[in-house]
Design brief:
By secondary structure, the chain is an alpha/beta fold. It folds into two domains: 149 residues, no CATH class; 126 residues, Glycogen Phosphorylase B (Rossmann fold), CATH 3.40.50.2000. The chain is 30% helix and 18% strand. The chain has twelve helices and twelve strands. The chain has a six-stranded parallel sheet, sandwiched between helices. A four-stranded parallel sheet has the order 3-4-5-6, with no helix packed on it. Strand 8, helix 9 and strand 9 form a beta-alpha-beta unit. Helix 8 packs across helix 12. The longest helix is centred in the middle third of the chain and has 14 residues. The mean pLDDT is 91.
Length: 292
């Protein structure tokens, strides 16, 4: 959008964001985006630091994620104290997203009273589809669709990523796999069994950008697995023969890329996948192999 409308942009990077970016990969992405758009990056330590950056300025502030939940407090607080010369906007950063559309596990982990400090919120769907949005927040809603679908500039794809093989995405850090019991082992056991069953075929595993579970926990992977940790917009989903993931926004990316998609669920179907109804489910190694 900055390129299309020739907008001057600045990027605020909070201390908490930097603390989570232990490998520096997120900052590398931000620096690349800033370079392409001639943007200035401002590291901010706290609310007063952010206010100093915003003082005597105006425009629009976009928050990639923001709500009254504790994990979102840095952006939530910044939007609350932003000068009135700014219009503040929060993006729905995923298909299932707190305050917009939550699964049962989101409700258990985060509750159902999620509010936004932003003046407006950019959502993927009309309000009747936003079953988790409070009535008090619905007047803020502007339907823009998924941010990926709004991308109108070419992105350089990582051509070192293998083509024409399967893509498996893990989001084991998610409350979907922990709020109703620990389902992480179920996923990894099934994934390993699937890889062993198709041992002559290669498979790509992509960790969730924010969770990075298999990397942080140094999970040993089957020999036919290639780990890919590039940003989604550099992966090029259409290069893959099929995709499998537990409930996650990456499933929407796969659908937009028009590849065959299956939703992983635990063997006992404890994890809620109602928001993905209509897609193929895999709940066993046999299901996974049949999907191929």
């Amino acid at each position: 959008m900055a390129n299309s409308h020739k907008l001057y942009t600045e990027i605020l990077v909070t201390r908490q964001f930097s603390a989570r970016d232990k490998g520096g990969s997120w900052l590398k992405e931000i620096e690349e985006i800033a370079s392409k758009n001639n943007s200035i990056i401002y590291p901010v330590k706290d609310d007063s630091d952010a206010l100093r950056v915003l003082n005597r300025k105006g425009g629009v502030i976009y928050a990639a994620s923001e709500s009254n939940l504790g994990a979102h407090s840095p952006t939530h607080n910044i939007l609350k104290i932003a000068p009135s010369s700014f219009t503040t906007t929060t993006l729905q950063h995923g298909f299932e997203c707190v305050g917009f559309l939550q699964s049962k596990q989101h409700d258990i982990a985060h509750g159902t009273n999620v509010e936004f400090a932003a003046d407006t919120v950019c959502g993927w769907f009309p309000e009747e589809k936003m079953k988790s949005m409070l009535d008090s927040q619905k007047d803020k809603l502007i339907v823009t669709g998924p941010t990926l679908a709004l991308q109108n500039t070419a992105t350089e794809i990582d051509n070192e990523i293998p083509k024409d093989i399967g893509l498996i995405c893990e989001n084991l850090h998610s409350v979907r796999l922990s709020s109703s019991g620990d389902l992480k082992a179920d996923f990894m056991d099934m994934f390993e069994g699937f890889c062993n069953r198709i041992s002559e075929q290669k498979v790509v595993l992509r960790p969730h950008p924010g969770g990075q579970y298999v990397l942080k926990n140094k999970v040993k992977l089957p020999s036919n697995v290639t780990l890919v940790n590039s940003p989604t917009y550099k992966v090029g989903m259409s290069r893959f023969a099929y995709g499998v993931s537990a409930p996650s926004s990456v499933i929407i990316d796969m659908l937009l890329a028009k590849i065959p998609v299956a939703v992983w669920r635990d063997s006992e179907a404890v994890m809620d996948a109602d928001n993905f109804a209509g897609l193929t489910e895999v709940r066993s190694i046999d299901d996974w192999v049949k999907f191929l």
